[in-house]
Write a structure and sequence with these properties.
Layout lengths: L1 E5 L3 H12 L3 E5 L10 E4 L2 H5 L9 E4 L5 H5 L3 E4 L4 H20 L10 E5 L3 H12 L3 E6 L3 H8 L4 E3 L4 H6 L2 E4 L8 H4 L7 E4 L9 H6 L3 E4 L3 H5 L1 H19 L1
Parallel strand pairs: 1-2, 1-3, 3-4, 4-5, 6-7, 6-9, 7-8, 9-10, 10-11
């Protein structure tokens, strides 16, 4: 099976190298025309996969994120890595570790005893919350009623309703958002104390307007695609494992 990884970031190049090391015929392609003879193709999104000159009767199309509805409509066998729970769990660990490393870099104070507020309690936020707690941070979770809030309660994490984070924001030294929806408007951003750090780990449309936050003097950053930037080798290995697993399962 010829596996082609199209575009992407540094982890795509490392994933191709891992697949080669494991005995696969694999390569990283920078241009769509390099994918012509692929038996399996991985692209960041289905739109990028659709731009490749591959044939539905031959090529299995995998996407790193998003759905595959258009690919399937056009007759492709297709799947998203977001359907693979093992990949999502591993990627969440790498994302949380990268977020923790970013918080530790250049800090004058340790996380020990710091007040941390996390918006959301999915895979990434849950992993990050436990890492922060292990560092001795005082963690609070802002979550909607339902499964996420229930998990936070079972894990013993203090929580507040995501619609009522005001008091927690006023005390927070570090705030992480993992919710891919606006949860922090200007009114809430103004509640953050001086010196607080605000980090968005979510995908678009993100949890807050980063330019608005910076205009208010907040130390704000957006860490998208964190595994590929923080640990491309480990992220590449995780990606390669998922591609091989799904190619074998869908091929």
């Amino acid at each position: 099976m010829k596996i082609v990884l199209l575009g992407g970031d540094a982890r795509y190049r490392r994933a191709a190298a891992y697949l080669e090391d494991w005995g696969c015929e694999a390569r990283h392609a920078c241009a769509a025309e390099e994918c012509l003879d692929a038996d399996a193709l991985l692209a960041p999104t289905q739109e990028e996969a659709l731009a490749a000159p591959v044939r539905p009767e031959r090529t299995l199309c995998l996407t790193q994120r998003g759905d595959c509805a258009l690919l399937r409509e056009r007759g492709f066998r297709a799947a998203s890595l977001e359907e693979d729970e093992e990949y999502l769990r591993a990627n969440a660990i790498l994302t949380a570790e990268g977020a923790l490393a970013a918080a530790l870099g250049g800090q004058e104070r340790a996380l020990l005893g710091s007040r941390c507020l996390l918006f959301g309690y999915g895979r990434i936020a849950r992993t990050l919350a436990h890492m922060l707690a292990a560092c001795g941070a005082r963690v609070t979770v802002a979550a909607r009623p339902g499964p996420s809030a229930a998990r936070a309660s079972r894990d013993g994490m203090p929580r507040v309703p995501v619609t009522e984070p005001e008091e927690a924001l006023r005390r927070a030294e570090h705030v992480w958002n993992t919710v891919p929806a606006p949860v922090l408007d200007e009114r809430l951003l103004r509640l953050l104390p001086e010196g607080a750090e605000l980090t968005d780990l979510a995908s678009a449309p993100y949890g807050f307007d980063i330019e608005e936050a910076r205009a208010l003097g907040i130390r704000a950053r957006r860490l998208s695609g964190l595994p590929g930037k923080y640990c491309p080798d480990s992220a590449g290995e995780v990606l390669a494992e998922a591609v091989l697993r799904m190619a074998k399962g869908k091929g």
